[in-house]
């Protein structure tokens, strides 16, 4: 376990629990989220948190059998912050009273909290303007606060919006300080971790040193193979592991013929030439495109690619000979997802392509040096390791590549058209300085031809759709509000520069109800 000061987030199933962790990590505090069921007396003793946060959650503490932490948490002598459902848990556990929600007392959305009490430790930097905007989302409400607590802030719908027992350093708020709609929320977290005595020792420089030591201990003089996709996560993992064990690492880059313009060359140049990392460049485009010939169903495409990827990776990995370990760029959100309170998604919307089946199939042990990190931390680590900024900031690219941006049947001709259009579009976005504001942008080539007129002639070519979204984690997304000038300039460039496209549309669907990719 890490040597850093640790904060424990007990997850009661809120949709925004991950945001609490992100806010804390931004403040250089190491924290972990654990579902309340796993937080036992023994767990608490072993974890030895310096502070605890109770997340929000969908249940009602007035219901018998509703989620609770072990009562020993209150005897640890460490500060506790309860948020929303977490506040109600604290009040109920410590002798207050919570009432089940009625329509009249439920409160959702923006609210304003007025100061009613004083606590310089917790409220430092708050109420400078007399009141604070916060985000509420609760059905139940606290009817009576627990003995020892006082009210520091109140809103029309939540008389006990901020409560505190400064002697025990227990704090409880009805709103969500972790969301953007509580603009000054970060300050409350800052105050909480300061009063808990955190040193702010969670930095990427420290993480790098520790991760390298850990990899060396785990791997010894064994061999590691790593599947490189050219994405940020696997690249950062590879560079970190290479720094730890040098040529004991071999990377396998499977080129399935569904990459963007120049992508394969860039990845190979960076890893083999720049970093000198042993790299097998497996050009398997004939195999993949052959298997996809005539396939138009999105799920069949995804499954075909996923299965072939595993076969091909396995074939080339065998060339390395005697590898015992497989490196993966698994991130903390993936880890949380697999143990989360509410479980993973209940319906399969898309079969995500990954190499999850590999370790068991190949009898390999996993090396996952990014397991504790969020995406933005991986980028910071990449920076620390000296990866070029242009590479670190690249938009995510899905494993099945252009196959899922070419709805319907895929042909080499269509892929070529798509690559060119995509390159023009991304160039436009970069030229206008918008690349870093956008989570992901790409072109989808539509399986329709439309009639146009260019010069004096008739054209009958493909239509394409531009996609650009903002998002925090890819789970939800909004389309990006380009200016009309940008859109018309881009459409003109694509039609002029890309033979085969004569019509450009802009996709203004958010997620949900759409998804980011087209298939
Ligand atoms: P959707 O289309 O589901 O995409 O809204 C959400 C995010 O996930 C990426 N994506 C994938 N990434 N393998 C991946 O590694 C996949 O099979 C896959 N499918 C979608 C997508 O690009 C977006 O960032």
From TrEMBL:
Catalyzes the synthesis of GMP from XMP. InterPro entries: Class_I_gatase-like, GATASE, GMP_synth_C, GMP_synth_GATase, GMP_synthase, GMPS_ATP_PPase_dom, NAD/GMP_synthase, Rossmann-like_a/b/a_fold. Its EC number is 6.3.5.2. Keywords: ATP-binding, Glutamine amidotransferase, GMP biosynthesis, Ligase, Nucleotide-binding, Purine biosynthesis. One of its GO terms (cellular component) is cytosol. Residues 202-394 form the GMPS ATP-PPase domain. It is an enzyme of class 6 (ligase). GO terms for molecular function: ATP binding; GMP synthase activity. The keyword Nucleotide-binding applies. ATP binds at residues 229-235. This is GMP synthase [glutamine-hydrolyzing].
């Amino acid at each position: 376990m890490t040597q850093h000061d640790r904060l424990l987030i007990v997850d009661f199933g809120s949709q925004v629990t991950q945001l609490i962790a992100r806010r804390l990590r931004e403040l250089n505090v190491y924290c972990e989220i654990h579902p309340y069921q796993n937080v036992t007396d023994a767990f608490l003793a072993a974890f030895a948190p310096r502070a605890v946060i109770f997340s929000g959650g969908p249940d009602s503490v007035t219901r018998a059998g509703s989620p609770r932490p072990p009562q020993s948490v209150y005897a640890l002598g460490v500060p506790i912050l309860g948020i929303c459902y977490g506040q109600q848990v604290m009040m109920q556990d410590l002798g207050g009273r919570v009432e089940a929600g009625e329509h009249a007392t439920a409160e959702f959305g923006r609210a304003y909290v007025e100061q009613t009490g004083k606590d310089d430790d917790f409220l430092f930097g708050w109420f400078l303007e007399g009141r604070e905007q916060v985000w509420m989302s609760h059905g139940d409400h606290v009817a009576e606060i627990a003995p020892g607590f006082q009210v520091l802030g109140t809103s029309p719908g939540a008389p006990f919006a901020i409560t505190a027992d400064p002697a025990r350093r227990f704090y409880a708020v009805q709103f969500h300080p972790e969301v953007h709609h509580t603009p000054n929320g970060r300050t409350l977290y800052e105050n909480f971790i300061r009063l808990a005595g955190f040193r702010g020792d969670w930095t990427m420089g420290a993480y790098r040193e520790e991760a390298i030591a850990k990899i060396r201990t785990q791997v010894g003089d064994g061999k590691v193979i790593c599947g490189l996709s050219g994405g940020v996560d696997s690249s950062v993992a590879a560079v970190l592991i290479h720094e730890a064990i040098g040529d004991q690492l071999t990377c396998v880059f499977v080129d399935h013929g569904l990459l963007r313009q120049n992508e394969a060359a860039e990845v190979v140049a960076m890893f083999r030439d720049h970093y000198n990392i042993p790299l097998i460049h497996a050009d398997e485009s004939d195999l993949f495109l052959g298997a996809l010939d005539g396939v138009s169903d999105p799920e069949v495409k995804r499954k075909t690619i996923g299965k072939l990827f595993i076969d091909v990776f396995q074939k080339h990995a065998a060339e390395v000979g005697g590898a015992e370990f497989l490196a993966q760029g698994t991130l903390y959100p993936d880890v949380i997802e697999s143990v989360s309170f509410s479980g993973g998604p209940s319906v399969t919307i898309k079969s995500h392509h990954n190499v999850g089946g590999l370790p068991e199939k190949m009898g390999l042990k996993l090396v996952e040096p990014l397991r504790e990190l969020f995406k933005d931390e991986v980028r910071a680590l990449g920076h620390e390791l000296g990866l070029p900024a242009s590479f670190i900031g690249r938009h995510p690219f899905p494993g099945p590549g252009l196959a899922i941006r070419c709805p319907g049947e895929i042909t080499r001709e269509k892929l070529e058209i798509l690559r060119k259009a995509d390159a023009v579009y991304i160039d436009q976005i970069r030229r206008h300085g918008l690349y870093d504001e956008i989570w992901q942008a790409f072109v989808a080539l539509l399986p329709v031809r439309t009639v146009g007129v260019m010069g004096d002639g008739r054209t009958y070519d493909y239509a394409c759709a531009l996609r650009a979204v903002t998002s925090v984690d890819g789970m939800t997304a909004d389309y990006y509000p380009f200016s009309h000038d940008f859109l018309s300039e881009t459409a003109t460039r694509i039609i002029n520069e890309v033979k085969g496209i004569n019509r450009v549309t802009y996709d203004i669907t958010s997620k949900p109800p759409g998804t980011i990719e087209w298939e």
